[in-house]
Amino acid sequence: MDHWDKIEGSPVHLGATWIPSENAFNFAIYSKHAEHVSLLFFTEENLKEPVFVFQLEPHRNKTAEIWHCRISAVEIEHAKYYAYQIDGPPPKAPFERHAFDPEKLLFDPYSRNIFFPPDFDREIASRPGPNMGRAPLSVLQSIECVFNWENDEPIHHTSDLIIYEMHVRGFTNRDNSGVSEDAQGTFAGVIEKIPYLKELGITAVELMPVFQFDIQDGNYWGYMPLGFFAAHDGFCMSEETCERHIEFCEMVKALHSAGIEVILDVVYNHTGEGNESGPTYCFKGIDNTTYYSLTGQPESPFANYSGAGNTLHTSNRAVRKLIVDSLHFWAKEMHVDGFRFDLASILTRKTDGSIEETNPSTLGQIGSDTSLADRRFIAEPWDAGGGFQLGSRFPGHRWMQWNAAYRDTLQQFVRGDEGHVADLMTRIYGSSDLFPDDCMHALRPYQSVNYITSHDGFSLYDMVSYNEKRNWANGHHNTDGTHDYSWNCGCEGETDVSPEVMMLRKQQVKNFFCLLMISNGSPMFRMGDEFLQTQGGNNNPYNQDNETSWLDWSRLDTHRDMFRFVKRIIAFRKSHSSLCRSHFWREDIHWYGMARDVDLSTTSKALAFCLRGAEEKDNDIYVMINAAPTPGAFGIHEGTPSDWKRIVDTSLPSPQDILELEEAKPLSTAQYNVQGRSVVVLIRNPQ
């Protein structure tokens, strides 16, 4: 007697699995509440009429909550695409808001590739009724997309970690990006720019979402995912399924060959289906009450801790499995080195929406998975529902975290706000208030991802060029976007900027980069900040797939002096391991002011410190910071003047603003006149 699985299918592996020995596919999909499930197959030539339909019988094709079947390739003829139609009970109690529509085509949540037909229509998906020929479909893959990884292995940087936040399309989509025309805005374009990343000193790229998203949603950033296993087709050159898979793998392999980690910004907190008014592509129609958190309120049934219309029900075991399976796919099959979790506090929310502070099931399942143990996890430790778990409050205790406190303190201090000297000391030290290293917590400074700007907010140049955001083009009457502690240096925007204002702006940007690179923790900055990329004052261009968001590579030529400074300050950090240690500096740092003692008064805007490097077999480093508009005479309170060489002075023009050690000369006096709004870094001569 033949095996049952060969007749009825297997529930073990979700999605579509090709079985060469049987010349057949196994299909499996989770739907706890479904009552009728059909599987439809389409050819390339006819997307409106299925070439084959299989009705799943619950007594044969359902095991627990999983529907499954085994279908021979002969039966589906030349079909290339498939989709489900699922029916079930109508809405019942408030927390059983079923959204079954038996006429809707639904793609497989485990699809490795999602196809949008020429007549795709988001609007039809947002209304009840059929959308045959106009719905996204899952792509059948009867062969494995074989890629030769050779000896490729995961990469994990430590003290030399420099994270570069990048949007794949925006990085190279302009004609002046210098990449071949076909590769502009694609994974292949990233490959062509690897020499640039190497020259800059980048050791990790953090790619903004690459999961497939709705091509008619208008969300350029990609934070409205549809499929958690499929790469976005818009980032690929080829239209062939396997080629798309291979293009992503080629990018990862090339970055690894250059010693660069690949971190994906992943969105496991919501989907692009939105709320009750949004489209039905997949999860809503498969099992709404399983996949989404509900409120029980008819007027607003979908919980919205994401700010995007819905919230994935991550405390549900089926959703947790979906997330972990997705992580496995990207880590093991696509060789991704790490993940940055968007709005990660949602992963700690229980079914009722409250936050599980100590042992949330989703984070626990991710953290205890041994096959993911060698991957980097980074949390955005808050959500749009008021959850804020920065530091030791976040229950993923080994995770790194975006440190918003670092961002806010640095923005305010460099702007010249009063009362931030103590905060600045804490942030430079590694944010020990948030990541305590007492015996109970034993947290580490490198868990703090230090950043001043990210995709959320102004670019670094706009931070010093605009007092007010310019978000009118986004369509929300300039009410959207974050609050940045920006200052325009005396002239709003890009019109009629005097040489003096431009010099001050560059000086402020150098201050930001210098402080970022001499802080304990893991530094991150956004693409283009190294050559003063501007978004015209738009601090939330999530829907601007145009020159507002695409890097303008002509600015690299215009601002070569800034690129040189950033490249050298990165190299400086990487050559001094004492700056980024696995532990806090403790007794190796001594804090000073302009005088010997730190001035912690409200009006103080000055700070200095000496970091001793003997423990790391490194030079001693002396830093003087003056955020006041006027010069300050800083005493040098360690060693003799001739012990020290000035490496950085952000008030000086290029190339004097940053020097190599052999280019610098010993100081002649025990005092240094630090100009207003500038940072000075000294190195003690090797003994």
Automatic annotation (TrEMBL):
Record-stated family: Belongs to the glycosyl hydrolase 13 family.
EC number: 3.2.1.-
Gene name linked to the record: glgX_2
EC category name: hydrolase
Domain Glycosyl hydrolase family 13 catalytic: 165-573
Stored SMART domains: Aamy (SM00642)
SUPFAM superfamilies: (Trans)glycosidases, E set domains, Glycosyl hydrolase domain
Superkingdom of source: Bacteria
Gene source species: Gimesia aquarii
Entry keywords, A to Z: Glycosidase, Hydrolase, Transit peptide
Listed Pfam families: Alpha-amylase, CBM_48, ISOA1-3_C
GO annotation (BP), single: carbohydrate metabolic process
GO molecular function (one): isoamylase activity
Protein name: Glycogen debranching enzyme
